[in-house]
Amino acid sequence: MIKTEVLTIDPEQVSEQELKLAGDYIRQGKLVAFPTETVYGLGANALDGSACDRIFDAKGRPHDNPLIVHVLDPKDCDRYADTEYSPLFPVLAERFMPGPLTVILPKKEIIPDAVTVGLKTVALRCPCHPVARALISSAGVPIAAPSANRSGKPSPTTAKHVIDDMLGRIDMIIDGGDADVGLESTVISLEKDKIKLLRPGFVTLDDLLNITPNVEVSPSVLEALSTDEKPESPGMKYKHYAPNAPVTMVSGADNDVIAYFIQKEKEGCGILCFEEDLPFFDQELKNVISLGARDDVKSQANRLFSALRFFDKTNVSHIYARETTCDSIGLAVTNRLLRACGFQKIKL
Ligand code: TXA
Ligand code: MG
């Protein structure tokens, strides 16, 4: 156990001065969890291989799953990756950086193997959250950061989630309020004239198609990889976002799904439903959680991980979830929910 300091920062009026100690910690090789617009990250100096090794230990992360490097400005990416590799990079950078997009490019020597787990590529992201930006600026170095959860658990969208997972394991947690988006960044890899979508997020498939029609969606976005397949993004092969109770996605006619949910709730199961479903339960039931309206994909993205974590504080034996849309940000919601389910689905 190490002592974990918790520092509370108002994201509306953050100053670099307030983050001086946190920045010092990063430069000294310590681990600092911080808010971003997507989820909380667990940061270390991306140029310090042994600091990055500590991230894997603190999370219990498999040693073949690479980290994202966070920089202040898209122009800084040149130092760490070959940004001229694809003419699409400047266009994407101009449109989506800073913001919830991560781009994979050929790496430069300066990035240690501990970050990329020996791959020839590096993932780069330029967050727009004011606290993340002030931390990178105060540290004066790029920050390698995966999501700040124990490996396999849903990503943290509040400082409380990080405290639950990481207290005693890292040096500092910066509490800068709840994450806006609630799901991790969109991850893409670039070829000369093509974008490959590896992990959907708030930057949507349509957003990417507006840049080029040449976008390929990795099959691993909506399908389980077979055990011998080598994933393009190593993170895709691991069990993810899993609460303690198993999760199953349920599809079918509304009436059937609701009747099924009512029955399962009585049997002691947790229910993840839409706002429109709530009136069908005859009272407010504490293990029935709405992700938001059926079409409100932003709300669903924002609430999914909190809801999955909520069930860990209950004794539900199983969680049943509504099937979500794949439109727009719904593709990211569905991608995370399917992984939380271990791809378990039933059709009524
Ligand atoms: O929103 C986010 O992206 C958050 C915040 C903290 O920035 N970070 C995050 O990191 O979600 P993490 O480590 O939980 O997910 C990073 C994903 C993993 O699936 C990893 O395999 C993939 O990005 N990745 C990283 N570097 C890669 C590379 N060089 N090639 C392929 N995939 C890579
Ligand atoms: Mg993660």
Produce the secondary structure layout.
Elements: E1 5-8, H1 20-27, E2 32-34, E3 41-45, H2 49-59, E4 68-70, H3 77-80, H4 88-96, E5 101-106, H5 113-116, E6 121-125, H6 130-139, E7 143-144, H7 159-166, E8 172-175, E9 186-191, E10 194-199, H8 205-209, E11 215-217, E12 247-251, H9 254-266, E13 270-273, E14 288-290, H10 297-312, E15 319-322, H11 330-340, E16 345-347
Parallel strand pairs: 1-8, 2-8, 4-6, 5-9, 10-11, 12-15, 12-16, 13-14, 13-15
Antiparallel strand pairs: 2-3, 3-7, 4-7, 5-6, 9-10
Helix pairs in contact: 1-6, 10-11
The protein binds threonylcarbamoyladenylate and magnesium ion.
Describe it.
This protein has helices spanning 20-27, 49-59, 77-80, 88-96, 113-116, 130-139, 159-166, 205-209, 254-266, 297-312, 330-340; strands spanning 5-8, 32-34, 41-45, 68-70, 101-106, 121-125, 143-144, 172-175, 186-191, 194-199, 215-217, 247-251, 270-273, 288-290, 319-322, 345-347. By secondary structure, it is of the alpha/beta class. The longest helix has 16 residues, at 297-312. It contains eleven helices and 16 strands. Helix content is 28%, strand content 19%. Threonylcarbamoyladenylate binds at residues 36, 38-39, 41, 65-68, 102, 104, 116, 119, 121-123, 125, 145-147, 184-185, 187, 199, 233-235.
